[in-house]
Amino acid sequence: MEEEKKEKKGFFKRLVQGLTKTRNSIKSSFDSLFRSGKIDDDFYEELEEILVMADIGYATTEKIIEDLKEKVKENKIKEPEECRQLLIDGIKAQMKVDEDAYDFENTKSVVLLIGVNGVGKTTTTGKLAAQYKADGKKVLMAAADTFRAAAIEQLTEWSKRSGVDIISQCEGADPAAVVYDAINAAKARNTDILLCDTAGRLHNKKNLMEELKKINRIIEKEYPQAKREALIVLDGTTGQNALNQARQFMEVADITGIILTKLDGTAKGGIAIAIQSELSIPVKYIGVGEHIEDLQRFNADEFVNALFAAE
User: Fold this and answer.
1) Positive/negative CA dihedral, 272, 273, 278, 282
2) Beta strands 295-297 and 283-287, pairing class
3) What are the chain's domains?
4) C-beta neighbour count of 73 within 10 angstroms
5) Dihedral through CA 39, CA 49, CA 89, CA 84, nearest 10?
6) Res 203 pLDDT > 70
7) SS3 for 79-118, per residue?
8) How far apart, in whole angstroms, are the C-alpha atoms of residue 253 and residue 151?
9) Strand pairing category for 139-144 and 165-167
10) Which residues, other chains included, contact 75 with Cβ-Cβ below 8 Å and sequence gap of 6+?
11) Sheet containing 139-144, strands listed edge to edge, beginning at the edge strand earlier in sequence
């Protein structure tokens, strides 16, 4: 328990460091805004500009400001400084992830990891496998991104590193056939969590859609009792592009959660708020570095504190 607390504290520290660029880009503007004379149209306009600059996006910023205006009116607030905590609390409330969002971790489940090449999807699959195994789960990985030999090699490396078994075939094999084999292996070995790394060829949406449909049909037929989870992995440094990618993937897959990677060193950390708000899909994990422990469950309070309130 003490170890877990230490790890959590360490992760929060890394999160604060990782979001330094985003925080620095808004901190001085924030400070001068909340020290300004009065709450008027100019105040809200400036606040809008600051939030949009942090890549929170127009639609989400509008929601946040409307919410703040209502609270200011309700509480008869006159001083801008009093708005700071109201704003932070309002964003936290929007970002809360329900506890049942992680139910799949505690039951027999098949987790598909989806996302374009280069976002850290295969690495994330490996990190999750290592973490679940460390938690005492029986884990199996399926290298279903057969489009790239590098993805199979990378996942095989993660398999050796974490001591988690992998089911794979050669490059160019049918991804659904790999998932079929993996499901049979998962059932035979009484596996808790089967993690499937899938291809992310958004430029060829029709093929991708057919591939994912086929994979889902196999899971439905061969393993109907398993809980299904589809997590989209997005690169936090790409800001609004990540939001657009998520929208496109939603057209081809039933996404149940988001994993935001590479948040360390980005000036666009606000994208986590925009994605969750605009897509109504929870951010379930965030990554702030290369190490296994640098991927953690998303915590709204910690994230918003690291973004706005941390020193």
Assistant:
1) positive
2) antiparallel
3) 2-95 (1.20.120.140), 99-298 (3.40.50.300)
4) 9
5) -40
6) no
7) CCHHHHHHHHHHHHHHHCCCHHHHHHHHCCEEEEEECCCC
8) 21
9) parallel
10) 82, 86
11) 165-167, 139-144, 193-198, 109-114, 227-235, 257-261, 283-287, 295-297
- Average pLDDT of the residues in 23-47: 87
What is the C-alpha separation between 106 and 112, in angstroms, rounded?
16
* φ, ψ at 6 (rounded to 5°): -65, -45
Closest to 304 (Cα-Cα) out of 120, 58, 54: 54
Q: What is the dihedral of CA 211, 215, 217, 223, to 10 degrees?
A: 180
Decide: residue 292, CB within 10 A, 0-12 exposed, 13-18 middle, 19+ buried. Answer: middle
- CA nearest to 216, candidates 237, 196, 243, 235: 196
Distance of alpha carbon 307 from alpha carbon 301, whole angstroms: 10
Q: What is the pLDDT of residues 248-301, one digit of tens each?
A: 888 888 999 999 998 887 777 888 888 888 898 999 999 988 888 889 999 889
Q: Judge whether 31 and 80 are in contact, CB under 8 Å.
A: no
Asked if residue 246 lies in contact with residue 231, where contact means CB atoms within 8 angstroms, the answer is no
What CA–CA distance (Å, rounded) separates 142 from 154? 12
Per residue in 140-163, pLDDT tens? 999 999 988 899 999 999 999 999
Check residue 286 and report its DSSP letter: E
